[in-house]
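User: What would this chain look like folded?
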Amino acid sequence: MSTTTSNDELIAAAEAVLNPHQVGDRLFGNVAATLITEAGNTYSGVCIDTGSGTGFCAEHAAIAAMVTAREYRIAKVVAVWRDDEGVLYVLPPCGRCREFIRQIDWANIDTEVVLGRDRTARLRDLLPAHEWPDPLD
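Assistant: Here's the prediction, encoded as structure tokens.
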């Protein structure tokens, strides 16, 4: 894949790792994410839902794989989920993920976030008031 990867290609890459399964009272992998870096490498991950807020989102898992490979700049990212009828959805990143993407590298404020087959937005548009504030005096 390259930084010109289509939304459909990125969605398909995320769908390929989507594999929800229950382990006891925990749910693993019901949301999957794939990102492509400015260097053209792709990384994927799945969510882990656990009690007490100790789990994490699929975007976090994909970003962790990216950082493990010593990359920090995200060109494009997508997350997907499938409902009980088998219908696939693209999910926008939650607020925590939006802030996490930004904090990995300041340039990620311009990351292209896939919101559908023909719809994207820059992270800056999904994360308002992201600039450091000016002093009051």
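DSSP finds four helices and seven strands in the chain. If you want, I can go into more detail on any region.
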